[in-house]
Amino acid sequence: MLIRITLAVDDRDLRRRLGSVLARPDILVQTPRVRKGLWPRILKDPCDVLLVGESMLPEPLRAGMEQLLLHPDTPASVVLAESADPVTHARFLADGCDAVLFAGLAEDHVRGVIEAMLEKRQRKSQKLFFATRPLAEPRLSDFVSESPGMARFLNLVPRVVQSDTALLIEGETGVGKERLACAIHTEGRRATGRFVALNCGALPEHLLESELFGHVRGAFTGATAARRGWFEIAHRGTLFLDEVGEIPIHLQVKLLRVLQEQEIQPIGSEKSFGVDVRVIAASNRELQTEVEARRFRRDLYHRLSVVTVTVPPLRERPEDIPVLVERQIAYLAHQVSRHVTGIAPGAMRAMCRYPWPGNVRELNNVIERAILLCDDTEITLSHLPESIADLASGPPGHPVAAPDEAEPPEAPVTSPASGPAGRLALPEVWLTKSLQEVRKSYLADLERQYIEGLLAATRGRIGEAARRAGLQERSLYEKMKQFGLRKEDYRQPSGATG
Fold this sequence. Notes:
The protein is α/β, with parallel strands linked by helices. It folds into four domains: 3-130, Response regulator (Rossmann fold, 3-Layer(aba) Sandwich), CATH 3.40.50.2300; 140-312, 3-Layer(aba) Sandwich (Rossmann fold); 315-389, Helicase, Ruva Protein, domain 3 (Orthogonal Bundle), CATH 1.10.8; 399-417 and 424-498, no CATH class. Helices cover 41% and strands 12% of the residues. It has helices spanning 12-21, 38-44, 61-69, 86-94, 107-130, 151-160, 177-187, 205-213, 230-233, 249-261, 287-292, 298-304, 321-335, 345-353, 359-373, 386-389, 435-457, 462-469, 473-483; strands spanning 3-8, 27-30, 49-53, 76-81, 99-102, 167-170, 195-199, 238-242, 263-264, 273-274, 278-283, 307-310, 342-343, 378-379, 417-418, 424-425. The strands form five sheets. Strands 2-1-3-4-5 form a five-stranded parallel sheet, with helices on both faces. The protein has a five-stranded parallel sheet with strand order 7-8-11-6-12. The chain is elongated, with a radius of gyration of 29 Å.
């Protein structure tokens, strides 16, 4: 994060000397020069260290220092005294100042004191940040896979960890895009900096620009205090922009400039300043398609997608499900203080047959629910949602008739029927495709039929359908949008009975 220093002195020569002392890429110096209204301005602007001349201190000083303690950044305060009188210095310290320097000290002495204070400030910032990190930091080893579909993904990712190249991660909701971005940051050379994640689709347009670039006081109605943007906070670290395709076109222009120039300009400010940030973007839609539809700028796409990584959905790599289940049980059982150590074969079989429309996120939620319901050491079918437990025996899924209004899926793949001697009578079209193509087509058709049947059974009640599926409502809405399904088509007409 950039360190902001407010240099409030009225002596031009002293201001020049201190400016040379503070000249660093990681320091942003703010120099208010007007005494009138200075203290209220200091209290409303971002600030990490305050260097203030004796002539510009508020009266009474103790009350001013108490106000400074309420500042969101709790800045360290250094008074530049006009004399070397120890009694005067002691009075400043007693009133709440953190340090006192004689303004006439040699430049080397001033630099030593200020650098010691900056180092202490940076350690404090790092300590506060790392204390909020999850107990189990993401690692690239979390993504070890037995699936051929993950081979290219696992071969590419380690090559980009140690670089500062922009990276685009594509994949469906719930596949672990943010966790992958965090793992790349944690194992890269920016690991000592901050990892900042921002969901661009979760913020209103008028707030997104301020969140990204910050704003100055008075920039717009309600901006009563200045605010740092996430680019500034992520200085020397990584900024993860989730759902980057949701950024409005006019903000895409400003984001492109930041990526090209490595400078940001807060809203309402006439000045820009440099930042050193690696940007990792993510989208659950193919941005190339958005570019062709003119919803996303082509030049920004090329800037973000220097390297593109696609995380396959869980339904395309069922070989990974047993490993993911066992790892999640081992992790969550410890977190929730349960003595669950494994999963019954029938329950694991059902987990492997389920299509996981919510991907790894849904799997983790199902495991957590099962552990909380389990009173023994082993998860069984009774601890799983009905939509999963019902798949423990028989073929994975049963076709459900779609409503008249719904369009049939393109090139549907029907479930195989039993042939002579108990062998499966495979559809001929399957034999013209690869195993991966058959699996993808069959599971997609199964997923659509399952959601259609669930909506029909719940008469379009999204909350109930999501509960049965073990999904968040938002995830269910996303799957419905993917398949062109509407809840209104499944609701019972008014006046109907039965």
